[in-house]
Design a protein that fits this description.
GO molecular function: DNA binding
Order of helices and strands: EHEEEEHHHHHHHHHEEEHHHHHH
Structural class: alpha+beta
CATH architecture of the largest domain: Orthogonal Bundle
CATH topology of the largest domain: hpI Integrase, Chain A
Distance between the termini: 106 Å
Number of strands: 8
Pfam family, one: Arm-DNA-bind_3
CATH class of the largest domain: Mainly Alpha
Radius of gyration: 33 Å
Number of domains: 3
Number of helices: 16
Keywords: DNA integration, DNA recombination, DNA-binding
Shape: elongated
Strand order of the largest sheet: 1-2-3-4-5
Protein name: Integrase
Family: Belongs to the 'phage' integrase family.
Largest sheet: 5 strands, mixed
Helix content: 40-55%
């Protein structure tokens, strides 16, 4: 029950939990509250335009009763002049948060990342890291100082490096999205990245492996496998000399790690990178000889069934035997889903002497071989998971019947 009395050091020390509140007898509305845990805070109760407001002055652990009284007097004076001190306090807090969050790095970590998690926990970390890594030179930059000119320069540099238009556009769009949220939240007034036009993407580009290139790629994969086995033998030899525990020798197993299985699976199923990385063993049906790409992982948001030919079926069976307790098909460490294959892939491509061939091109390779083998385009569309036939028509020129029809025109 609330009690009355002048708020002093003695009165505050004597305040009990059951008292709940001490109303000051000198300043109207000035009071102290005590929580069920004994924490005491000072407040000022006032009315403004018929509205009741309770204003927090401070905590007893931070200010003395005398200091709280002085603050209360000052605030009463402002209220008398018609000022809304609560709104001023909120505005001051907003200004503080704005100043704190103005740097891109802080904004991404404290504001944008939690927002991404609330929207889609599965992709939040990837999006956050993508912006932080691609635009690391902007991490300490004020949000309002990020200009379209320097992003345009960044785009030019990436194009000189030979980066794909789609990759560059994706990076710029993720940064645009972050800055647009900052505008929505009142952290900055505007940004001018919207003036940057996307690079025109060549969606007709199809890169697939020739028979000789495919042999080279498979050969360097085997060379890598053998090198890892030899290094393991050498390392264990030194560990044995030191009396240390030996690592497995890879005896009786086909694969030394995930690299060969994931590349062969990509070549023989045409799955997208994201679909491969999210694939679980529950999605692989060995008796029926097919795998399922769930709608949640597919770009088209539709579930599709992909048959497994004898080559990839054998690969997955042997890989499963090596990883009987893992949930994800392609793992890194102790049943942690693989997140990237970039480093080993780039080394393999370099060693195989493949020019302008990225991991996604394994999907083009799969589709191209099907079309050149005479598979109709609609079946290829279904296997690839294209939402319409337009995307699949890129492979039409590879169909043997088209070549034959062209020659027959002059026959």
């Amino acid at each position: 029950m609330a009690i009355k009395g002048k708020i002093t050091v003695t009165a505050i020390k004597s305040l009990r939990v059951e008292d709940k509140r001490l109303n000051d007898t000198e300043i109207a509305g000035f009071h102290a509250r005590i929580s069920t845990k004994g924490a005491i805070k000072y407040y000022l109760f006032y009315r403004l335009n018929g509205k009741q407001v309770n204003y927090l002055l401070g905590s007893a652990s931070d200010i003395t009763p005398a200091q709280a009284r002085d603050i209360a007097k000052a605030k009463v004076g402002l209220v008398t002049q018609g000022q809304d001190i609560q709104e001023e306090k909120k505005e001051a807090k907003r200004e503080y948060l704005i100043q704190k969050a103005l740097k891109l790095g802080i904004f991404l970590e404290e504001k944008y990342y939690p927002y991404l998690v609330s929207r889609n926990p599965k992709t939040a970390q990837k999006t956050y890291q993508h912006i932080a890594n691609r635009f690391d030179f902007l991490i300490d930059r004020q949000l309002g100082d990020i200009s379209a000119w320097e992003i345009q320069k960044w785009i030019g540099d990436r194009r000189k490096e030979g980066r794909a238009a789609a990759t560059i556009n994706y990076s710029v769009n993720t940064l645009k999205g972050a800055l647009s949220r900052a505008v929505d939240w009142g952290l900055i007034e505007s940004h001018n990245l919207k003036t940057i036009k996307p690079i025109k993407e060549d969606n007709t580009r199809i890169r697939y492996l020739t028979i000789e290139e495919e042999h080279r790629l498979l050969s360097v994969i085997q060379d890598r496998d053998q090198l890892i086995r030899e290094k393991r033998v050498s390392a264990n030899h030194h560990r044995e000399k030191r009396g240390q525990e030996l690592h497995p020798f890879f005896e009786g197993v086909r694969f030394v790690d995930y690299v060969e299985p994931i590349i062969l699976t990509a070549m023989h199923t045409g799955l997208r990178r994201g679909e491969l990385l999210s694939l679980t063993w529950d999605d692989v049906f060995f008796p029926n000889q097919y795998l399922v790409v769930k709608a949640t992982e597919a770009k088209s948001k539709k579930t599709r069934i992909v048959p497994l030919n004898p080559t990839v079926l054998e690969v997955l069976r042997e890989w499963r035997q090596q990883n009987p307790f893992c949930n994800y098909v392609f793992v890194s460490g102790e049943d942690k889903p693989l997140t990237d294959i970039k480093k080993p892939w780039l080394r393999l491509v370099e060693h195989a002497g493949l020019v302008n061939f990225n991991f996604h091109d394994l999907r083009h390779h799969f589709a191209s071989k099907l079309v050149m083998a005479g598979v109709d385009l609609n079946t290829v569309r279904e296997l690839l998971g294209h939402s319409d036939l337009k995307m699949t028509l890129r492979y039409a020129h590879l169909a043997p019947e088209h070549k034959a029809a062209a020659v027959n025109l002059i026959g």
